[in-house]
Amino acid sequence: MATAALKRGSKRDAVKEYIFLWEGKDRSGKQVKGEMRASGENVVNATLRRQGILVTKVRKQRVGGRKKITEKDITLFTRQLATMMKAGVPLLQAFDIVGKGHSNPSVSKLLLDIRTEVETGSSLAAAFRKFPLYFDALFCNLVQAGEQAGILESLLDRLATYKEKILAIKSKIKSALFYPTAVIVVAFVITAVIMIWVIPAFKEIFNNFGADLPAPTLMVISMSDFFVEYWYAIFGGLIGGIWGFFALWKRSRALQIALDRWFLKLPVFGDIIRKAVIARWTRTLATMFAAGVPLVEALDSVGGASGNHVYAEATKRIQQEVSTGTSLTVAMQNAAVFPAMVVQMTAIGEESGSLDAMLTKVADFFEQEVDDAVASLSSLMEPIIMVVLGTLIGGMVVAMYLPIFKLGQVV
Question: Which of 24, 106, 132, 137 is deepest in the core (most CB within 10 A)?
Fold first, then answer.
């Protein structure tokens, strides 16, 4: 009996879900349209009839094959929802407006599902918690705090600002790393093209010289021969190595922790990453504390939001010390991962009763530091990369022209 019930439950779970786009007329004869998630067209018709809508057209749209929902989509949705709620738009209507106006169908489907949960009696925080892939514990905790305190509009506005700041700091880090990475890739491609196609053409010309070639030319030709013979192994090994590294990185927590520690020790880049992590840490704690979340509970979300295992582990130690009565300032000082300025500002905030304001100032300061560091790094990297590329490409060109210069001297 239990097995049969389980099989029936499995069949129900296996039913494909569809989004139905419908058009019709309401009781007043006004033309209306919308979308509904259901298992079949008959369900859509029956549901709309109960709502007093005369259906004229129903079109099924498969759920699969949609664009991915990004962090930017969630940030934009949070800002739109906060703006409409502050303007007095009812919650369910706000979901309708944002969902129908979004360019990403996957976001529209997600908002429709959340709206359905809220419409059936769930709180907004509980509805968000059913989609942990898009709404983390910090997001849900802040929404819950806003609902309980009756200040949901203000909390959504603060949450939108927080996500915009975090998204901006991530963008700064990516831009700092993207430029040198792109140049390295382009340099490798250009070098491969020269090695595989250009140098072999010179080699055929040099074979007719009947004279000894200079050592740099022989070295470049040997490298070219290796590239021509094993190009598939070089490219395959490089692509496979990169893919394998990222696959291992996703599965190995030990590797993630080791890389996070190594990133913080990198010259130049490590300082930028550390400042970005501290900015996210302080911004998250300030947002949680200002929302009225108790400090010990707020620290639960802060470590994960920092984006670095070193600071996540330090946050756990801070949380344990704070829960036993230690002040936040002393706990942060014991963690030994924060600069003296951060600890001092935290101490001032605790003594004056304005911890959230002080942490916000710290976050603003370090975000500006990241902006300045990225701008300086871009200016510094350009001449360095030009010199490296010029030495690499120019060295190969000179090596291939040396025999021609030698021939000209003989003539």
Answer: 24
- String of b and e for 99-108 (b: at least 16 CB within 10 Å)? beebebbbbb
Provide φ and ψ at 231, rounded to 5°.
-60, -40
Strand stretches in 302-341, DSSP E: none
Using the Cα atoms of residue 211, residue 215, residue 216 and residue 220 in order, give the sign of their dihedral.
Answer: positive
| Closest alpha carbon to 133 in 96, 160, 94, 107 | 107
For the chain (411 residues), the mean pLDDT of every run of 10, in chain order, is 42 53 81 74 80 82 66 91 90 86 82 88 90 87 87 89 87 78 82 86 78 83 88 89 89 89 89 91 89 85 83 93 93 93 94 91 92 82 81 84 69 46
Burial of 363 (0-12, 13-18, 19+ CB in 10 A): buried
At residue 40, φ and ψ (nearest 5 deg) are -165, 165
What are the Cα distances from residue 194, in Å, to 198, 225, 227, 279? 5, 12, 10, 44
User: For the residues of 148-176, what is the DSSP string, one character each?
Assistant: HHT-HHHHHHHHHHHHHHHHHHHHHHHHH
Contacts 24+ apart (CB under 8 A), 224-227: 224/195, 224/196, 224/199, 224/200, 227/192, 227/195, 227/196
